C-alpha cells in the first residue's frame, strides 16, 4: 500500500529474509484452508497476498469485506480490491475481485509544484506501476478506501447504489520546461502520484464501474501539502448534523478533510496536523467515527489512524484521538490530545483497521493482522495475510477521560462448542521459583480461554498467567501473563520455537490492581488478548514450534513467587469457519436381536478434513447395551481432532424381545 514496498521486497529478497521460513511440512496441504498455519476462524483469502480491509459495509443483510489483494501472486503487488461476503460477520465467502487494478490508462499531462520543487514541473507520460520510465505498463493500482450507501440517489446513479472511494496510485515521468534536449522537456525522472477516485455498483457490490473514465474526483493537484506520493486512503462518513459527507485523506504528516453534498464534488475544509512522533513514517487509513458515549446521548468523534512506525510493540500499529467535529474542523478535546495518542492495540499485529458502514447502534472494526516491519515472517503459502476478529468498539468515559473498549463481536460466540471448566483453582509458587499447572482436560489449537486472577498485596507473585500452544514436554509455549511489579500485561513468544527475540508486546495497566481478567482467542497462527473486558488488547501472529507444528496443543497456568487464586477458568473450542471440523458417520437408530453380539463401533467411522481418519479416537458413552435385556438404549459417539474441536452423534439402540417358541 505504499511506494516503499517495491524496494522493500527487493531488499528482503537480496537479504534472504523472504524465503523458506517454515519447514517442508508447513507448506500447503492438498485441501483448501487446511494448511498447517492457516487460521480456522479468522478470514484469509484462499490464495495470494491480502492486506488492509477496505470498504466495509452492510447492505441488504450482507456484510461486505473488500480488501487490498494481489490476484496474481503471494507477494505485495497488482493491488486490487478483493471481496468477501458474510451474513454473520464470522463465516465469509470469497467473491470475485471487485475492483481490479486499472490498465490501458490515458496519458497523464499536468503541471504541479510539490514541496520538493523550486518551480512547477510537468507530469507527462503513460502511467505505470513498475517504476520504469522507459517501459511504462499503463496500469494504476487500486489502493485503500471506503464504500458508502447512496440511499437517496444523491450521486445520480440510482437509489441504494454502493459507491466506492479509493486511491489510484501510479508512477509517471516528470519533466521541466527546458526543451533544448527533448521536445517534451528535460526528463527529471519518475515519481509516484496518488489521487482519489470513485467507482459505483448498482448490483449490490458484485461489480463496480469506475467513474468518469477513471478520472479522479480529487486530483493530485489538489493535495494541500503538495505531497503527490503520499495522498491516500479516503474513508467517507456521513455528517448528520451538517447534512454532508466528509472524506478524511492522509497527506504525509496530516489528515486533510474534504466535504461534499453530491458525492462527486469535494471541497477541502481543514487539516489535522500530526503532533506526536512527527516524521516517524506516515499516517495511513484515517477515519472519523461519530460515536455515542456509553450511557449517554452525547456524540463524540473518534479520529483513528494507522502509523507505519512508532507503535508500542514496534513498527506499525493503530492510534486514536477523541474530539468533536463542527462540519469543517476536527476539534481535539484538549491542547494535549494530539500530542498523546491512545492506542487501539498493544500487540505487533493490528493495522489498517476501519469500521463497517450501515450498522446503526454498533461500531464494528476489522483490522489486518500483520506489521510492516516483519511481514516477511508470515511467509505462508498459498496465502499471505489474515484479518483480525471483527471487534465492537464502545466509547466510555471515566475520571481520566474518554477511551475505547473493545470486544469480539457477539456473533463469534456461535463458533463455541460450549464451556469446559478448567481444572485449576490456586497456584502457590515458592520464592524464586515458578509453578506450572498443566491442564489435562483441555487442549487444542483453536479456542478461547478466559480466567480471572487475583492475589493479596503481601502475596503478589512476580508473574502469573497462562501458557498457550505448549509442546508435550512443556519446553515450547507462548506465554500471556501479568507482572504485578511493573503492572504490565505481556505476550511472550520467545520460547515457542520460532527463534524470535522481540518481547515488545506488552501494556501497562492503570492503578495498582490485585486482580486481572484475561480473555484469549487462540487460532492456528494468531492470539488476541482482551484484558479486563477489553480495556486493553494485544494482537499477535505466532507460528508455534515450526519444526513440529502438530506438537503445540498444550495449555497450562503458571505463577512465580507468590499465591494466586484463579476463578472462572474456562476453555471453549471454536469450530472452523471453513468446514474443517470432524464428523461421525453412524446410524441414528439400530435394532439388534436378543442375545446377539453387539459392537457399538462396528461400521462407525469418523473423518476430519485436516487430520484424516479419526476412527481410532472415537469414544462411546451413555447406556451400556445389554442384548440379554430387551429395551431401548441411547449411546453417544464422540471424537476430537488435533485442534480440539469435537463431533458428537447420538444413536438409539433397540434390543428386541426374546422370540417366543
Automatic annotation (TrEMBL):
One Pfam family recorded for the sequence: Glyco_hydro_32C
Keywords: Glycosidase, Hydrolase, Signal
Pesticidal crystal protein Cry22Aa Ig-like domain span: 583-655
CDD domains in alphabetical order: GH32_Inu-like
Domain called Glycosyl hydrolase family 32 N-terminal: residue spans: 42-105, 140-408
Stretches assigned to the Glycosyl hydrolase family 32 C-terminal domain: 429-567
Annotated signal peptide: 1-26
InterPro entries: ConA-like_dom_sf, Cry22Aa_Ig-like, Glyco_hydro_32, Glyco_hydro_32_C, Glyco_hydro_32_N, Glyco_hydro_beta-prop_sf, Ig-like_fold
Presence of the UniProt keyword Hydrolase in the record: yes
Family under the similarity heading: Belongs to the glycosyl hydrolase 32 family.
Descriptive protein name: DUF5011 domain-containing protein
Source species: Sporolactobacillus terrae
Amino acid at each position: 500500500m505504499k511506494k516503499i514496498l517495491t524496494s522493500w521486497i527487493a531488499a528482503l529478497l537480496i537479504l534472504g529474509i523472504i524465503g523458506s521460513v517454515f519447514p517442508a511440512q508447513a507448506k500447503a496441504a492438498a485441501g483448501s484452508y487446511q494448511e498447517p498455519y492457516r487460521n480456522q476462524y479468522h478470514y484469509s483469502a484462499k490464495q495470494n497476498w491480502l492486506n488492509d480491509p477496505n470498504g466495509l459495509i452492510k447492505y441488504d443483510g450482507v456484510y461486505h469485506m473488500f480488501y487490498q489483494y494481489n490476484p496474481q501472486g503471494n507477494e505485495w503487488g497488482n493491488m486490487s480490491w478483493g471481496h468477501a461476503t458474510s451474513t454473520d460477520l464470522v463465516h465469509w465467502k470469497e467473491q470475485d475481485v471487485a475492483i481490479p487494478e486499472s490498465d490501458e490508462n490515458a496519458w497523464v499531462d499536468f503541471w504541479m509544484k510539490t514541496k520538493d520543487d523550486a518551480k512547477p514541473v510537468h507530469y507527462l507520460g503513460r502511467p505505470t506501476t513498475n517504476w520504469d520510465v522507459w517501459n511504462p505498463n499503463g496500469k494504476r493500482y487500486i489502493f485503500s478506501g471506503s464504500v458508502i450507501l447512496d440511499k437517496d440517489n444523491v450521486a445520480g446513479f440510482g437509489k441504494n447504489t454502493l459507491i466506492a472511494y479509493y486511491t489510484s496510485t501510479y508512477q509517471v515521468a516528470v519533466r521541466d520546461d527546458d526543451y533544448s534536449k527533448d521536445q517534451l522537456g528535460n526528463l527529471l525522472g519518475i515519481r509516484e502520484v496518488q489521487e482519489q477516485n470513485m467507482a459505483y455498483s448498482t448490483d449490490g457490490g458484485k461489480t463496480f464501474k469506475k467513474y468518469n473514465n477513471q478520472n479522479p474526483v480529487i486530483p493530485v493537484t489538489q493535495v494541500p501539502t503538495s505531497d503527490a506520493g503520499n495522498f491516500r486512503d479516503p474513508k467517507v462518513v456521513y455528517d448528520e448534523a451538517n447534512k454532508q459527507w466528509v472524506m478524511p485523506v492522509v497527506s504525509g504528516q496530516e489528515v486533510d478533510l474534504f466535504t461534499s453534498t453530491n458525492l462527486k464534488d469535494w471541497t477541502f475544509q481543514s487539516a489535522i496536523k500530526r503532533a506526536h512522533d512527527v516524521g516517524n513514517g506516515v499516517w495511513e487509513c484515517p477515519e472519523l467515527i461519530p460515536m455515542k458515549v456509553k450511557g449517554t446521548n452525547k456524540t463524540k468523534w473518534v479520529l483513528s489512524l494507522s502509523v507505519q512506525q512508532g507503535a508500542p510493540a514496534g513498527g506499525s500499529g493503530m492510534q486514536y484521538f477523541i474530539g468533536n467535529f463542527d462540519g469543517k474542523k476536527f476539534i481535539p478535546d484538549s491542547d494535549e490530545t494530539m500530542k498523546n495518542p491512545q492506542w487501539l492495540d498493544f500487540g505487533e499485529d493490528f493495522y489498517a483497521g476501519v469500521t463497517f458502514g450501515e450498522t446503526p447502534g454498533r461500531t464494528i472494526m476489522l483490522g489486518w493482522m500483520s506489521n510492516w516491519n516483519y511481514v516477511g515472517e508470515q511467509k505462508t503459502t498459498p496465502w499471505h495475510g489474515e484479518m483480525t476478529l471483527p471487534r465492537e468498539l464502545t466509547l466510555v468515559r471515566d475520571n481520566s477521560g474518554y477511551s475505547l473498549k473493545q470486544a469480539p463481536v457477539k456473533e463469534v460466540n456461535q463458533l463455541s462448542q460450549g464451556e469446559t471448566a478448567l481444572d485449576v483453582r490456586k497456584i502457590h509458587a515458592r520464592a524464586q521459583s515458578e509453578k506450572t499447572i498443566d491442564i489435562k482436560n483441555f487442549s487444542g489449537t483453536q479456542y478461547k480461554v478466559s480466567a480471572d486472577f487475583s492475589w493479596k498485596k503481601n502475596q503478589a507473585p512476580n508473574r502469573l498467567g497462562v501458557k498457550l500452544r505448549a509442546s508435550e514436554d512443556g519446553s515450547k509455549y507462548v506465554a500471556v501473563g501479568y507482572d504485578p511489579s511493573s503492572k504490565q500485561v505481556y505476550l511472550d513468544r520467545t520460547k515457542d520455537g520460532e527463534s524470535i527475540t522481540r518481547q515488545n508486546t506488552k501494556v501497562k495497566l492503570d492503578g495498582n490492581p490485585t486482580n486481572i481478567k484475561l480473555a484469549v482467542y487462540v487460532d492456528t497462527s494468531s492470539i488476541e488478548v482482551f484484558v479486563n473486558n477489553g480495556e486493553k488488547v494485544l494482537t499477535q501472529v505466532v507460528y508455534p514450534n515450526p519444526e513440529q507444528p502438530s506438537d503445540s496443543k498444550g495449555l497450562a497456568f503458571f505463577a512465580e513467587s507468590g499465591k494466586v487464586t484463579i476463578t472462572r477458568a474456562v476453555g471453549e473450542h471454536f469450530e472452523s469457519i471453513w468446514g474443517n471440523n470432524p464428523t461421525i458417520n453412524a446410524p441414528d437408530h439400530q435394532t439388534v436381536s436378543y442375545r446377539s453380539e453387539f459392537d457399538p463401533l462396528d461400521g462407525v467411522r469418523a473423518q476430519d478434513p485436516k487430520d484424516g481418519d479419526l476412527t481410532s479416537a472415537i469414544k462411546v458413552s451413555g447406556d451400556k447395551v445389554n442384548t440379554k435385556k430387551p429395551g431401548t438404549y441411547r449411546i453417544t459417539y464422540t471424537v476430537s481432532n488435533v485442534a480440539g474441536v469435537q463431533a458428537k452423534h447420538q444413536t438409539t439402540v433397540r434390543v428386541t424381545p426374546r422370540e417366543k417358541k
